Amino acid sequence: MTSAPREAEARLGPIGATLCRLAFLAICLPGPVLLAAAVTLDPPRSPTDFWGLLAGGVLATIIGVGFGVFGLRLVTRSRRDGRRLSAAGVAATAEILTVANHLGGEDPGLELHLRVSGPGFATFEADTIRADDPALVPGALLAAVVDPADRLFSIT
User: Which pTM value belongs to this model?
Assistant: First the structure.
């Protein structure tokens, strides 16, 4: 059984990946620092200060570590997708079937419904979002790279 097609995450280079990992690691740190401050402050603070630091440290740890781990997983997935497409990807053609406006997020663009075909895999349809471009019209052909094993693709 073949998995559903999935567009590869945006490709990050080694420097970008390192900087992202450092930023996400920095997001994880304030919570444990607050926890350590709550436990090791000398002289001991009032009970209100202690419990406030402890509660703030626990909350910041849960939120920061959760967000940091999520970000680290995105970076890892991006790098893995890039390596897989470089190693096992085959050249393909993506034909634009329909174009619709996409208003989500800060950057409005176009939602494209594509038919992706090429050697070594069955033709499939997928959706992607691209920046607004007058050349993106139904019937236009775009270059793509596809990993035939699981239909991971990237529009180039």
Answer: 0.72
